[in-house]
Amino acid sequence: MKRRWIYWWIGNIFWIITFGILAAIIWLREVDGTGVTQTPELKLIAFIVLLIAFILPLIIQVVWLLVNLRKSRKNKAEKREESFSI
């Protein structure tokens, strides 16, 4: 496995763990930082805000995936051409 794929997986695992921890904190807290008691509606709003905040890392990861896929296909094609030319 190439380094770029390993880094991509490490990045994905980091973002998934971070999202899971923050979602658990939001859903399990009884009172937020301002002292307001959290109702299910307020927890849902906070969770939606968290989802919106994680859209940018998601877009970056998808672009990174596409770049990795394109480079992998290009490398496979080059290796096939080398094997035929020998």
From TrEMBL:
Membrane-spanning segments: 7-28, 44-67
Pfam families named in the record: DUF3923
InterPro entries: DUF3923 (IPR025037)
Keywords: Membrane, Transmembrane, Transmembrane helix
Identification of the protein by name: DUF3923 domain-containing protein
Source organism: Bacillus wiedmannii
Source lineage: Bacteria, Bacillati, Bacillota, Bacilli, Bacillales
